[in-house]
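Run Flagellar P-ring protein through structure prediction, thanks.
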Amino acid sequence: MIISKWKWPLAAALLLLGLFGAMADATAASARIKDIVDIEGVRENQLIGYGLVVGLNGTGDSLNNSPFTRQSLQSMLERLGVNTRGESMRTANVAAVMVTANLPAFATQGSRADVAVSALGDANSLQGGTLLVTPLLGADGEVYAIAQGPVAINGFRAEGNAATIVSGVPTTGRISGGGLIEREIGFALGSQRSLRLALRNPDLTTARRIALAVNDFIGVPTATPEDPGTIRLHLPRNFNGNIVDLLTDIEQLVVEIDMPAKIVIDENSGIIVMGRDVRVSTVAVAQSNLTVTIAESPTVVQPNPLSLGTTATEQRTDLSVDLRETNLGMVGETVTLQQLVDGLNALGIGPRDMIGILQAIKAAGALQAEIEVI
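Sure, done. The structure for Flagellar P-ring protein is below.
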């Protein structure tokens, strides 16, 4: 992949394309199989829970504005034998939070996982707080982990009588190892005779190359590409080991990655990301730079002596238009988009001009790539 950042204007930059055309294409990217596929059954699961953070230094929820915090606090105290129904509660040291975590693949009972804590009410900061025991539920409604512990935050909040400083986001935090796994998700990977490999970036050519690499390494037909995103893996009859041994042997194999010709444009940050195989056919390009300058220079007008007039301000506007035209520049056959963008950037081009030129070349049918604007 080639990444180009827009930071400059445009002129007749296409004259430089002849120099860039002599540049050789970048060598094809290669990667290990383990870095470009996901193995069926080897995955995380998302967990969520609702809890209370206590011990805040007056930066918690306002109970009058957060009824769920009041109800949760009363329910917790009742379970501990303290009856607060009907009583006025004004503490600002408690905050209701949502707790999220990822249950690691093949996590066993008693192992730990990191949890993230986010304020739900109008708390100002979770600094110094401690999360009380919070059940973490899976998509099936079952409890898979319990979270508890002191919350560590990256931001801070400091305020005085007339000023407030906030750095980062003090209403979110993290508890390292704060989730204790209570339930396991069963999946007997070692007993599988067949499973699928899922490409993270589906592509027909890459899927076939992976299958060929695996079959060449094992020596018998073992992998079959089913679609652009899936390779079916079968355990050979005479293989000395189980499916885990097979995965361990093949995940280090290096394959050449192929990808479609695609251009991604981010108008907000001014970034162009393009694939290696993007090509530009023969096309002529010209661009105009229109600059409008408006300057206001009001002047003070004094009345004549003894005229009983008043001092006034006269508005004056200086307006100028600068239109700079460029001649048609010829883009030769098989010029890569990298060479085109490098040539335009060398003489200067702004992000709006860059987007317009790429889209115009695409509309003319001379750009062999898909354009995605995000």
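The radius of gyration is 32 Å.
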